[in-house]
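@channel sequence for tomorrow's demo:
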Amino acid sequence: MATVEITKDNIDETLSKNDIVLLDFWAAWCGPCRQFGPIFEAASEAHSEAVFGKVDTDAQQELAAAAQISSIPTIMIFREGIPVFRQSGVLNQSALEDVLGQVAALNMDEVRAQIAAGEQG
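structure tokens (generated this afternoon):
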């Protein structure tokens, strides 16, 4: 699946209707973002089980602010609507593949239990 443009109008639906969502926060003027773009796109073609979304931080300043994006590129990965990974900077293809494998292998019952324990403590 090719990457999709994520905006304030489709972010909630994208996160709620898909098991795994990767978001690439980027801008056209950002050199490292342009370097990471083809890596992200190639991964989107190889992993049809996940949604790969691109968030243009210039056009979607509200989303970038809500996600507390302070440097780009930043990748965020959501599993079942829960943010489970975040990293700024360029990931190479093998690192992105590794992270995707770890996210897919997560026991989401355990993740939700950890979140609940953290909220109580």
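heads up for whoever presents: Residues 12 and 81 are 9 Å apart (CA to CA).
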